[in-house]
Amino acid sequence: MTAPTGNYQGVSGFTFTQEENEQLTRVGPGTLMGNLFRQYWIAVIPSSFLSESGVKPLRIRLLCEDLVLFRAGNGKIGLVGAYCQHRLAPLYFGRIEDNGIRCLYHGWKYATDGTCMEMPNIPAEQQFCDAIHHPSYPCVEYGGVIWTYMGPSKELPALPEFEFALVPDEQRSYRVFHQECNYLQVLEGGIDPTHVMWLHSPYNLADESLAQKHQPSQHIVANKSGARTPMAIEIVDTAAGFMYGAKRPFGAGEDLWRVNQFIMPFYSMPPGSELRGARIYTPIDDENSIKWQINWYPTQEIMQSVKKGDRLNFPEEEYLPATHEPYSFIRPKATKANDYLISWDVHRTQRMGIAGVNLQDRCVTENEGPTPILDRSKENLCSGDYTTIKARRMLLGAATALRQRGALPPGVKDPRVYRVRATSKVVPDSIPWVEGVKSDVLVSGSTALG
Ligand code: FES
Ligand SMILES: [Fe+2]
Question: 200 CA distance to ligand 2 centroid (A)?
């Protein structure tokens, strides 16, 4: 695909029809993307949300399926259909027992793998547990995260070897937020090289003290280039996606390259400092998603040498009390309904008036058009959107190859393709940028660049 310059209106392959938009955004059982995503392990929630056995289940919805997640008394994790097979009472209110969950209505009991174990409201000789098939998905705890596999294969895929999953607990942190929109527009915000210096930067790029209060340190370095518009954006394919570099001037004979990763099916990594970053955009259903903000230090030494963490937290991001909705326990205070607690005074005079990069992104991605699913047939795309277009084409290509030829998508078989990082690095003009950043973006053992 050779990209035209500037205006992409009417250019075949660089615009999207309503039909393609449907294909890209619908995630329920049997849909094109739903089937693609079911080939992979899916991050459900950080393990810390389910730290104690037997306390209470969590209401989960993934790829449009309502589920409950619980840890039985024996420590095993169950992710099972939300409604009892008898008369569909909510298993969320079930009683967690040593080896399963018991429906509160008439006492039917399910094991963590969904097997119906008892129907105690009728005599033993009349019970028909074997005829009951309750939905359930296998879970593993890996890297401080509960992952599930919702696909058709008996053989589980390899667990993705992300660096954040491989480091000790104390070197990483997870933050998760419910988002009131389709997963794809949140993902697209994570691989969008030209918005950072507009949405997230102070109106006066030289205002460092203002930037320090709400931007991570590598943004502040980019501010110093004084260039809101990148000189170039270059894309390089990797084994499970692509990485791209946005180039900005950085003095004589040197350029600042901000390098992001897009990784199939719904991961990105923003350019970090020594504190590295990754994002997951898990689809809850067609109109809701979860944004994961992951940070980690690759080594103990690096963690020790960095005096102050780069992680900025804002009171507006604290969680609201949970409701009856799935994943409502991770909704931040700043929401669509309260204009993200914007300060219009700050907005007018200093910077985007919403607190911090995360909520600023949230404000934009939850409100792209009047519906929770952005209508991509109405966009007017430009060369600044090439990374977004590329990711959409990659998703459509992999999902179509799976449907038509049964081709396994990238990453399912080789977990080492996930051994990558993003970076923000000054590279001399005299060498190709990929050479200049290679040792930063590849984690040892990586097969991402072959
Ligand atoms: S509805 Fe669950 S046991 Fe009857
Ligand atoms: Fe952003």
Answer: 7
Q: Is the pLDDT of residue 304 over 90?
A: no
Q: Is the pLDDT of residue 309 over 90?
A: no
Q: How far is the CA of 82 from the centre of ligand 2 (A)?
A: 34
DSSP state string for 377-401: GG---BGGGHHHHHHHHHHHHHHHH
**If you measure from the C-alpha of residue 70 to the centroid of ligand 1, how many angstroms do you get, rounded to a whole number?**
18
Q: What is the mean pLDDT of the segment spanning 137-163?
A: 97
Pair of tokens at residue 62: 């993934």
Residues 407 and 333 in one domain: yes
Q: Quick check: is 30 in a domain?
A: no
Mutate to test the pocket of ligand 1, among 87, 102, 129 (most ligand atoms within 8 A of CB): 87
Which of 237 and 215 is assigned the larger pLDDT? 237
Range of the domain at 416: 163-441
Same domain, 197 and 319: yes
Q: Is-above-0.90 flag for pTM?
A: yes
103: its two tokens: 């429906």
Q: What are the backbone dihedrals phi and psi of residue 411, each rounded to the nearest 5 degrees, phi first?
A: 100, -20
What separation in Å is there between the alpha carbon of 102 and the centre of ligand 1?
9
In angstroms, the Cα distances linking 43 to 46, 209, 446 are 8, 36, 21
In this structure, are 49 and 178 located in the same domain?
A: no
Q: What is the mean pLDDT of the chain?
A: 95
Q: Which ligand is nearest to the CA of 105?
A: 1
Ligand nearest to the CA of 356: 2
Q: Is the pLDDT of residue 5 over 90?
A: no
Domain count, the chain: 2
Domain presence at residue 75? yes
**Residue 36 domain-assigned?**
no
Q: Which atom of ligand 1 is nearest to the CA of 87?
A: 1
Domain assignment of residue 25, yes or no? no
